[in-house]
Amino acid sequence: MSGRLLGHWRLFQARIRCLLGARRLWVVARRLLVGLVVAFVGLGGGASMANASPSFSTAYDAPVSAYDSAAHSVQAHTSEDQSLTAARVLEGVCGTATNAAKSPTVSSLVAVAADSGSNIVYRGLAAGEDPAAGLTARAPGASGVSPVSHVAGKVQSPWISTSGSFEVASGKYGANGVVGIDLSRVGTQVVDLRGGFPGGGMLSNWAVADQEVLIYGSVPPEAIVGVWP
Amino acid sequence: MRDQSSVIRALEHEYDRAAGFLGRLRSGEFDAVGGERLVALLRALDLPEGPVNRRVVQLLWMMPIFIEWQKPRVSQDHGAALEQIQNDVVTALEGVLGAP
Fold first, then answer.
1. pLDDT tens digit string along A100-118?
2. Among residues A48, A76, B46, B64, which one has the fewest Cβ atoms lying within 10 Å of its Cβ?
């Protein structure tokens, strides 16, 4: 119960911050609201907001679309975990959207966060990583490096670590900021280790504790759907 | 130490992220006392003749390369000490498992 209340509280805070911090975006969003609702109803509620809003084309389009999509995601989810996750996506998107009004570079970073909330993982950024350029593994050309070796700490690895848990990404690895990544927009192999390695063991326990999801090679900028500085 | 279940528990402890030498090393944390404890544990291993528990081998074989992989994460101040522990681990494993 308390978790659910916390989720709604976080969502409420995120909305307020969005409205205060991105007033100009809200004006644009408000003008489009009627069209979005009509399009959403027309698509039966299952289609992405991005697809339902082909008129987005200004510098504000992606952030506004991402906001709407995340807001839709919040309302579509009922469990406390999903509510909290969706609220965080909303916070990240809104933070980015607010910055987008000031910086076209950041604006271009946020593509469309359609259907975010169900397929999102998080990464605590390493020093020097620039989410606007996407993410690249330390050794993208290395071959034969197993997920076990990566989890064990091999530095020259073609894998990129992410977590299914925002708490892990921000609390343990978030000193340089956190990004949200939409796995459906990642074109390379993804290995989900949230359930550990077959056969278990200590490294498996590490992967479970970190809710680890590995992405091979790189993450394109368009897969990054939220940034928490 | 011949009881393999006790060996397994002791070796697994060294991979614990909060308390084990290897687990803490993964986070870039060098624990000199923990390193001495690990080397002492390996030197005390006395595996029985005949089949060795697979779990014991799983916990032993990766130790040298695991330590190697963590070197970039550890402060250079501890570089020489970590190198020494790695050497001691390899030598202890040679004694436990033998050479190829």
1. 333 323 333 333 333 344 5
2. B46
Residue A60 shares a structural domain with residue A125: no
B59 near A CB under 8 A: yes
Residue B66 lies in domain = 4-97
CB proximity B43 to A under 8 Å: no
What is the token pair recorded at B26? 């993964």
Residue with tokens 């479970």: A208
Farthest CA pair distance, chain A: 55
Q: Do residue A153 and residue B26 have CB atoms under 8 angstroms apart?
A: yes
Question: In the prediction, which pLDDT does A90 show?
Answer: 52
- Mean pLDDT, chain B, as a whole number? 95
Interchain contact, A201 vs B70, CB within 8 Å? no
Q: Dihedral through CA A191, CA A204, CA B90, CA B71, nearest 10?
A: 60
Give B-chain residues touching A152 at CB under 8 angstroms.
Answer: 26, 62, 66, 69
Q: Could you tell me if residue A51 is inside a domain?
A: yes
Contact B15 A154 (CB under 8 A): no
Burial (CB count <10 Å: 0-12, 13-18, 19+), residue A219 = buried
pLDDT at B49: 83
Say whether both A100 and A135 belong to one domain: no
Give me the domain span that covers residue A83.
Answer: 2-109
pLDDT at A85: 52
Which regions of A84-149 does DSSP assign to beta strands (E)?
120-124, 135-136
Chain A, chain B: beta-carbon pairs less than 8 Å apart: 25
Q: Which residues of A touch B69 (CB under 8 A)?
A: 149, 152-155
Output B32 or B49, whichever has higher pLDDT.
B32
CA distance A169 to chain B (A): 14
- One domain, residues A132 and A102: no
Residues of chain A with pLDDT under 70: 1-118
Query: Quick one: pLDDT at residue B50?
Result: 84
> Residue A125 has what DSSP assignment?
P
